[in-house]
Amino acid sequence: MHSPVAATIKKSAQRLEHDVWQAADALAHQSRVGSRIENVIGAVTECEHRNWEALAEIRRMRLADETDPRWIDNFGKVANVRDFGGLETTDGRRTRSGVLYRSSTPECADADDVDRLVDTLGVRSVIDLRTADEFAQHGHGLLDNRADIDIVNYPISSPVRPVRGQAEFVKLYQECLEFSPQAFVAAARHIINADGAALVHCAHGKDRTGMLIAVLQHAVGVPRKAIQRDFELTNLRLEQIRAIEGIRPPRAAVPQAMKQFLDTLEGVGGGAGYLRTHGLTDGELTSLREVLTTDSIR
Prior knowledge:
The chain has helices at 4-29, 35-44, 51-66, 111-120, 132-138, 166-179, 181-193, 208-219, 224-232, 238-245, 255-267, 270-277, 282-292, and strands spanning 82-83, 94-95, 100-103, 123-128, 150-153, 197-201, 293-294. By secondary structure, the protein is α/β, with parallel strands linked by helices. The strands form two sheets. A five-stranded mixed sheet has the order 1-3-6-4-5. The chain has a two-stranded antiparallel ribbon with strand order 2-7. The termini are far apart.
């Protein structure tokens, strides 16, 4: 059609496409855009008439991710905090809320943050996935002074150094799965036997924490698509991590790294099979499911 209305619509669509790319470039520069959004924006350019639908989907997904009820944002000096609970499993159960949390390192936590972790969330165990050197060098700040907090170190590590690009992240995840099976098992066993809620973290709560959470989610029946999406949520908190830790924005969580990680995991029997192969008993796996899931879907 060649009416003035059609010309106006076409011009608006072109302007919208320009604005979307301009906004994406600005956000990506600040390390706040996950690759899922970048992929969707790339798809938008394939066909002009799909611009509006694709943009609407971007907005819908962003809104859903930002308002996910599992986020816990009332911390001053701890970033990327969210509850393990609230995800449906393939057998109709739901991951249990209030028993396992994830975050960036809590070493900068102020007194109010510590009170929220211990008194409000009921955290009694801190599972640190950083290397032994990181554990010794950085510690846990005010949490180290709490006699009612059990802090353990189960390093998830790999010979891959340094990590610079997507291919290196993919290799890093693969090798962590290969070289640190006992850390995954020890963390799962600690969660089973924890007296109160547990908090798992690494430096940014992104890679090592993301791997452990993915193994646990897979082991208790969370669908792969939900695991992948949960992993990418960290990209919404990169600026918060930077502000708290006083560092340059960490690299975004790399979707392809988690995709390959899950491929490998499923090749060895999934999360449950991997944990069983490396020492977790069938009885402990049953206990893990009982601790981390509930029959109620509410």
